């Protein structure tokens, strides 16, 4: 009989190893493309610069249809086009009126300066001494 202490057969079996769990790797799964439908509707109703909002709405609807049909690549292409047309419509509807307002303001300032300069020209009075020389 072995009297050494502690005996290995009486030790509790504790394992610090975890049970192997399966590793799941998802390849090629990405979020579905956005269709930008709300932005397109807003641009169509409020900011329809050169009908770009309507074109963006058409591409947004196509992107949504392709996404529902499961054709993610076509949905991504149509979504990209809708985003570009929405950006152009928004920029055209915001930047061009601001540019026009800046041109009007600078034109008014320039005309007011010209008017002030011309007031001196038209208010010039000829001297009456020309009549006295005769």
UniProtKB/TrEMBL annotation:
Protein name per the record: IFM5 protein
* Record's keyword annotation contains Lipoprotein: no
- Segments spanning the bilayer are 37-59, 85-109
Source taxonomy? Eukaryota, Metazoa, Chordata, Craniata, Vertebrata
Q: Where in the cell is it found?
A: Membrane
List, in alphabetical order, the GO biological process terms annotated in this UniProt record.
bone mineralization; bone morphogenesis
Q: Which domain of life is it from?
A: Eukaryota
- Which keywords, in A-to-Z order, does the entry hold? Membrane, Transmembrane, Transmembrane helix
Tell me, in one coarse class, where this protein mainly resides: membrane
Membership in a protein family: Belongs to the CD225/Dispanin family.
Listed under GO cellular component are: plasma membrane
Q: Which InterPro entries match?
A: CD225/Dispanin_fam (IPR007593), IFITM_antiviral_protein (IPR051517)
Q: Where is the signal peptide?
A: none
Q: Does the keyword Transmembrane apply?
A: yes
């Amino acid at each position: 009989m072995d009297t050494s202490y502690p005996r290995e057969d009486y030790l509790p079996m504790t394992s610090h190893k975890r049970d192997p769990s399966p590793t799941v790797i998802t390849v090629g799964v990405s979020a579905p493309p956005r269709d930008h439908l709300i932005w397109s509707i807003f641009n169509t109703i409020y900011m329809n610069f050169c009908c770009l909002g309507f074109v963006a709405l058409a591409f947004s609807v196509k992107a949504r249809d392709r996404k529902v049909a499961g054709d993610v690549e076509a949905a991504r292409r149509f979504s990209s086009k809708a985003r570009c047309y929405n950006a152009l419509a928004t920029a055209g509807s915001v930047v061009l009126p601001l540019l026009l307002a800046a041109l009007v303001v600078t034109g008014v300032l320039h005309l007011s300066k010209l008017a002030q300069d011309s007031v001196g020209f038209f208010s010039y009075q000829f001297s009456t001494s020309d009549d006295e020389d005769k």
